[in-house]
Write a structure and sequence with these properties.
By secondary structure, the chain is mainly beta. It has two helices and 15 strands.
């Protein structure tokens, strides 16, 4: 199933949809999501949450600034702006869009070692990743993954409730954690894949 996810992910260039997202700095709210991952090392994402009356409560934009990834989060309720470069509380920004979509990170030229019947490890010279499979058949699968470096867990991710969207297998529910107090929970409500996404969506407003 991880191989299928990896193969399917190569066909995903853009995504537009709605998701319920709960996270530090973002709150817990229904969010409009726009993603462009056509450039591997320069992914772009826009998260915007507003209520039925059209009032915007949160805006987050992942874009590049001087060839470096930057994440800006504006909480309008608290009038607070947070800026992150390269990492968001330990999560590398270049992985953020794939983690939000529920795409496992499989390093190129990694060595695969089976840990036991339900888990395996992917390792390279710089990092180790371990994945555990629960209910490893079909759409009821649950995949738990850990990105490890020098045996210290950096990021944990869990993907569940898989479904096919335009022939592409993706999970509806995602949990990302750094095993401290930082955690992101995502529950996708709808997704459109490979649709037209205006580049203006990822421009960071000067007044943020």
């Amino acid at each position: 199933i991880i191989t299928r996810l990896k193969n399917h992910s190569q066909h995903i260039q853009t995504v537009r949809g709605k998701a319920w997202i709960a996270a530090v700095d973002l709150g817990s709210i229904a969010t409009h999501v726009v993603i462009n991952r056509s450039l591997t090392m320069k992914p772009k994402m826009r998260l915007e949450a507003h209520d039925p009356f059209g009032i915007t409560h949160m805006l987050a934009i992942l874009s590049s600034e001087k060839d470096k990834l930057k994440l800006v989060i504006k909480n309008f309720d608290e009038d607070k702006t947070s800026n992150y470069f390269e990492h968001w509380d330990g999560i590398p920004l270049e992985l953020l869009t794939d983690l939000f979509l529920g795409i496992p990170q499989i390093p190129a030229k990694s060595k695969v070692t089976q840990t036991d019947i339900d888990s395996f490890t992917l390792s390279t010279n710089s990092q180790e990743q371990q994945y555990f499979l629960e209910w490893p058949m079909g759409e009821e699968a649950v995949i738990s993954g850990f990105l490890l470096k020098k045996q210290k867990i950096k990021i944990g991710a869990q993907f569940s409730k898989f479904e096919h969207e335009n022939g592409i297998l993706l999970p509806k529910e995602i949990k990302i954690s750094d095993h401290s107090q930082f955690e992101i929970r995502i529950r996708w409500q709808e997704r459109e894949i490979n649709v037209n996404v205006p580049s203006a969506s990822f421009i960071i407003p000067e007044n943020l």
